[in-house]
Design brief:
The complex is a heterodimer of chains A (about 325) and B (about 425). By secondary structure, chain A is an alpha/beta fold. Chain A has a single domain, classed as Rossmann fold. Helices cover about 35% and strands about 15% of the residues of chain A. Chain A has an 8-stranded mixed β-sheet, with helices on both faces. In chain A, helix 3 links the parallel strand 1 and strand 2. Chain B has about 425 residues and is α/β, with parallel strands linked by helices. Chain B folds into 2 domains: about 250 residues, Rossmann fold, CATH 3.40.50.970; about 140 residues, Rossmann fold. Helices cover about 40% and strands about 20% of the residues of chain B. Chain B is built from 14 helices and 16 strands. In chain B, strand 15, helix 14 and strand 16 form a beta-alpha-beta unit. Chain B is globular, with a radius of gyration of 21 Å. The chains are: A alpha/beta (about 325), B alpha/beta (about 425). Strand 2 of chain A pairs parallel with strand 9 of chain B, so a sheet runs across the interface.
C-alpha cells in the first residue's frame, strides 16, 4: 500500500500530518493528581484530544481512575464515568448500545458519538480480558485503550501479567533466595486480541511519545474505521519503574527501539509496523533496562536472557514481534 | 369500577405464560432499550423469549450476549447511564458473579431492572429455589420484590421500572421469583396494551445525571471520607422515599389496570381476624393459602401474609399487620448460618421490625424448601399447629429435613426437634 493509499484509507479520520496541526483544545485538563512524568496521563490527554468533545468515556478502576478523578476535581471536560476494574469492555458496550438504541428510536438526536474506555494493564489485560474480548465481538463503534504501565500502579506497584520478566514489584521483590521472582514473560495482549477477533478491524500498539503523533493518529484511525477497536499503549511510569520523571519520553522511545515493545497496527487483518524493529538495527535491551530501578538486581545472565527473548521475538516469530508462532513457513516448504 | 369495557381497553390478550415469559412481555411493553443476556438456569427463559421477540421483529432493543454476568450487569449499568432503559437478570451464583457490578449500579443510582430467578448457591450446583441469591443485595441499595404468580411477575416488572426510575428513588430493582415453581410454571396472564403501559410508565429520564456530550458530567469519581458518607446518606434517603413512591405507583397501576393489589407491600390472606399468622415470600403462598382455607373450614383462625417488597422493608406496615396476631410464624426459603438465633434472613428482619411494636407476639421460624424441595399443604398445616404453640416450640424449625434421628427417610420432620 502506498502512502497515498494509506492516507486515502483514513481520509475521514482527519489524521494529523504534522505536530503543528494538532488541535489546541484540551478535554483532559487540570484537576488530576497524577505523578510527575506520568505517561499514562499523557495517554489520557492525547486520546481525548484526538477524539474530540463528542465523546463519552469510561475509565476502569486503576491509577487513571484514582489519581485522575477525585470527587469534585474531575479533569474530564467530556462526559466520563467510572467502571469496575474488569468492566472496561462491557462498559463501552453498554454505552454504545444505549446510545444506538436511543438514536434508532428517536429518543436522542442521531450523531456520531465516540465511545472510549480506558483500562489499565491489570483491568484490561488481566481481569477484564473477557469483557474486552466480548466487546471486540460486537458491532458497536467503540475503542478500548489499555494503558499499560506494567504494574498495578495505584495499589503499590504489584505485578500484573503485563509486568516484564524479572522486574521488581511489591509482589515480585528480589530476595536472598530468589533474585528473579517474576518469571512470566509479558502477555501479548494486542496480538492475542487481533488474532482472536476476526471482525475487529483495528488493533494497534502505541507509545504516547514516540514516534510523534503516532498514538493520536492511531486513536483517530480506530475511531473512524467502524466497529470495536483496541489500542495497547506502553506507558513509562516513574513510580513503578523507578527512574527520574524526566526520562519518561526517553524510556518510551527506548522500549520501542530495543524491540521490547513492538509498535504496529493491524488494519483489517493486515499488519503494518509503525516502527519496524526487525528492519532497523535494534538498540540493545540493556540500554533500556539499566535505566530503571526495577531491574537494578539484574546480573549479566539476566540481561542476556532478556536480550535473547527479544531477539527471538524479532528473528524467529512467524510474524515478528507479534505472533509467537514458529516454523509454519518451514512446514509449508 | 371494573367493567369489561375498561379492561378491554387496557389488556390486549390473555395467554398461558411462564413466570419468565411474563417478565419478557413486560420488558417488551416497557420499551426497554438495552438488555444483556448470559445463560443460567432458571431465569434464562426470559432471555430466550426476548431473543425470539427480537428475531420476529416484535421488540426493538439492543440485545447483547455478554461474556459473563459481571459484564452483563456492567453493560446494563452503563446503558442506563446514557439514558437507556436497561434489563438484565440472573440466578444463583450467576447473580453472585455479578456482585461487583450490582453494588456499583446501586451506588451509581442507576435504575436497571433485573430478574432474579431464585436458585440455590453452589456448591452443590442445585437448580432449585433458595432466596439467598437475591437477598445478597439486600443491604446494597437495591429494591427487591418477590413475584409469586406470572401475572404478578408481569405487573411487578412494570411497577418496578416505574418505582426504580422515579427521580425520588433512582435505585436498581430486582424482581425475584422462585426458580422452577414460577420461572417454569404456566399461568393465565393478562397482557396489557402498549398504550396502557405508556400511560402508567413515563419515559426513563435521568435528567441532569444523563451521560451525553451535551451534558458532560463525571459519574462516580473517587471519594473517601470527605464525601463518601453523604453519598451513603443519599442512598439511604432514596430507599426511605421508595416506600411512598411504591404506594403511589400501585395506586396508579390500580386505577389503570384494576389489578387488585390493595396493599402494595404484602398480600394479606384471611388475616383480618386471624390469631395465628404465617409470613412468607414467593410461591410457597400457594400451599400456604390452601392450608389456611382448609384450617379455616375446621374453625382455626389462621391467616397468611405473602410479602412482596423485601427492600424497602415495609416495617411500619408489617408491625401493624403482625402485632394484631397472638402467634406468628415465618417461612424462610433461605438461610443465615450463625446469624441471630440461627434463624433465617426473613425471620431476623421481621423480628427486628417487631421489636419496636407495642405488642410483640411470640414468633418462630421455619427453614423450608431449600434447594427447591417442595413445601406441601400438609407442611404448612403442621407449621400452623406449631405456631399456635409457639411458646413451647424451638425458635428455628427445619421443615422436611432428614435428621440424625430419622436418617434415610424424607418424612415430614417439621414436627420434630430442630437444630
Amino acid at each position: 500500500m502506498t502512502t497515498e493509499e494509506k492516507m486515502e484509507e483514513f481520509k475521514g479520520a482527519n489524521l494529523y500530518s504534522n505536530v503543528h496541526k494538532i488541535d489546541l483544545p484540551e478535554f483532559y485538563t487540570s484537576g488530576h493528581r497524577t505523578c510527575q512524568g506520568c505517561e499514562s496521563a499523557l495517554v489520557m490527554r492525547d486520546f481525548i484530544k484526538a477524539a474530540g468533545p463528542r465523546t463519552v468515556v469510561t475509565g476502569a478502576t486503576g491509577c487513571m481512575y484514582v489519581a485522575n478523578t477525585s470527587y469534585m476535581t474531575t479533569p474530564w471536560v467530556v462526559p466520563w464515568m467510572h467502571t469496575q476494574l474488569g468492566g472496561g469492555g462491557s462498559s463501552a458496550v453498554g454505552m454504545a448500545a444505549g446510545l444506538r438504541a436511543l438514536m434508532r428510536k428517536g429518543k436522542i438526536p442521531k450523531e456520531n458519538i465516540n465511545v472510549i474506555n480506558f483500562s489499565g494493564d491489570l483491568g484490561g489485560g488481566d481481569m477484564g480480558i473477557g469483557g474486552v474480548s466480548m466487546a471486540l465481538q460486537t458491532d458497536y463503534n467503540l475503542l478500548v485503550i489499555m494503558y499499560d504501565n506494567e504494574s498495578a500502579a495505584n495499589t503499590d506497584i504489584q505485578a500484573t501479567n503485563m509486568t516484564p520478566w524479572g522486574a521488581q514489584t511489591t509482589f515480585s521483590p528480589t530476595g536472598t533466595k530468589e533474585r528473579i521472582m517474576h518469571k512470566r514473560w509479558k502477555k501479548n495482549v494486542a496480538a492475542m486480541l487481533a488474532v482472536g477477533h476476526p471482525n475487529c478491524k483495528y488493533v494497534a500498539t502505541a507509545c504516547a511519545t514516540f514516534p510523534p503523533m503516532d498514538y493520536m493518529n492511531k486513536v483517530k484511525k480506530a475511531l473512524s474505521i467502524g466497529g470495536p477497536t483496541f489500542i495497547h499503549t506502553l506507558d513509562p511510569c516513574p513510580k513503578g519503574w523507578d527512574y527520574h520523571p524526566r526520562y519518561s519520553g526517553d524510556l518510551g522511545q527506548l522500549a520501542v527501539k530495543t524491540g521490547v515493545f513492538p509498535l504496529y497496527e493491524i488494519v483489517r487483518g493486515e499488519v503494518r509496523y509503525t516502527y519496524d524493529a526487525a528492519a532497523k538495527k535494534r538498540v540493545p535491551v540493556r540500554e533500556y533496562l539499566e535505566k530503571q530501578g526495577r531491574f537494578s538486581h539484574f546480573k549479566e545472565e539476566d540481561y542476556d536472557f532478556f536480550q535473547q527473548r527479544v531477539d527471538e521475538m524479532w528473528e524467529e516469530w512467524e510474524v515478528p514481534g507479534i505472533a509467537p508462532i514458529r516454523g509454519a513457513l518451514k512446514l509449508r516448504k | 369500577m371494573t367493567t369489561e369495557a375498561v379492561l378491554k381497553d387496557v389488556y390486549e390478550s390473555e395467554e398461558l405464560l411462564t413466570g419468565t415469559d411474563a417478565v419478557a412481555q413486560a420488558v417488551r411493553l416497557a420499551d426497554v432499550d438495552v438488555f444483556s443476556a448470559y445463560p443460567i438456569r432458571p431465569y434464562t427463559g426470559v432471555m430466550d423469549r426476548l431473543a425470539k421477540f427480537i428475531a420476529d421483529g416484535k421488540f426493538d432493543a439492543e440485545y447483547i450476549i455478554a461474556d459473563g454476568e459481571h459484564s452483563q450487569f456492567e453493560i446494563a449499568k452503563h446503558a442506563s447511564s446514557v439514558g437507556a432503559r436497561a434489563f438484565a437478570g440472573s440466578s444463583g451464583t450467576g447473580w453472585l458473579y455479578a456482585t461487583e457490578a450490582l453494588a456499583a449500579t446501586a451506588t451509581d443510582r442507576l435504575p436497571v431492572l433485573a430478574l432474579v430467578g431464585n436458585r440455590a448457591l453452589d456448591d452443590p450446583g442445585a437448580f432449585g429455589v433458595e432466596h439467598n441469591d437475591a437477598m445478597l443485595v439486600r443491604d446494597l441499595g437495591w429494591l427487591i420484590v418477590w413475584a409469586s404468580t406470572a401475572q404478578e411477575a408481569l405487573d411487578t416488572t412494570l411497577i418496578g421500572y416505574r418505582v426504580a426510575e422515579d427521580p425520588k428513588v433512582r435505585m436498581p430493582c430486582a424482581v425475584a421469583m422462585d426458580g422452577g415453581y414460577l420461572t417454569h410454571s404456566q399461568h393465565m396472564v393478562k397482557i396489557p396494551t402498549k398504550e396502557a403501559v405508556k400511560r402508567f410508565l413515563p419515559p426513563y429520564d435521568l435528567g441532569k445525571r444523563r451521560l451525553h456530550p451535551d451534558n458532560p458530567i463525571s459519574i462516580a469519581p473517587q471519594v473517601n471520607e470527605d464525601w463518601g458518607m453523604e453519598i451513603r446518606r443519599q442512598n439511604w434517603e432514596a430507599a426511605k422515599r421508595a416506600v411512598g413512591v411504591i404506594r403511589k405507583a400501585y395506586d396508579e397501576f390500580e386505577s389503570i389496570f384494576h389489578a387488585g393489589y390493595p396493599n402494595p407491600f404484602f398480600e394479606e390472606f384471611m388475616t383480618s381476624d386471624a390469631d395465628t399468622i404465617i409470613v412468607g415470600m414467593g410461591t410457597v403462598s400457594a400451599a400456604a393459602k390452601t392450608a389456611v382455607r382448609q384450617m379455616r373450614k375446621k374453625g382455626d383462625k389462621v391467616g397468611y401474609i405473602k410479602l412482596r417488597w423485601f427492600r424497602p422493608f415495609p416495617s411500619e406496615e408489617l408491625r401493624k399487620a403482625l402485632s394484631r396476631a397472638s402467634h406468628l410464624g415465618v417461612i424462610d426459603r433461605d438461610f443465615a448460618h450463625g446469624g441471630p438465633d440461627d434463624a433465617g434472613v426473613l425471620f431476623t428482619d421481621i423480628s427486628s421490625a417487631l421489636y419496636r411494636a407495642k405488642s410483640r407476639p411470640p414468633v418462630i421460624d421455619f427453614i423450608a424448601g431449600l434447594a427447591g424441595r417442595e413445601v406441601s399443604i400438609e407442611d404448612v398445616i403442621a407449621m400452623f399447629r406449631k405456631v399456635e404453640k409457639a411458646e413451647e416450640a424451638d425458635v428455628v424449625n427445619w421443615v422436611r429435613v432428614r435428621e440424625k434421628s430419622n436418617r434415610g427417610s424424607q418424612g415430614n420432620s417439621s414436627g420434630g426437634k430442630s437444630d
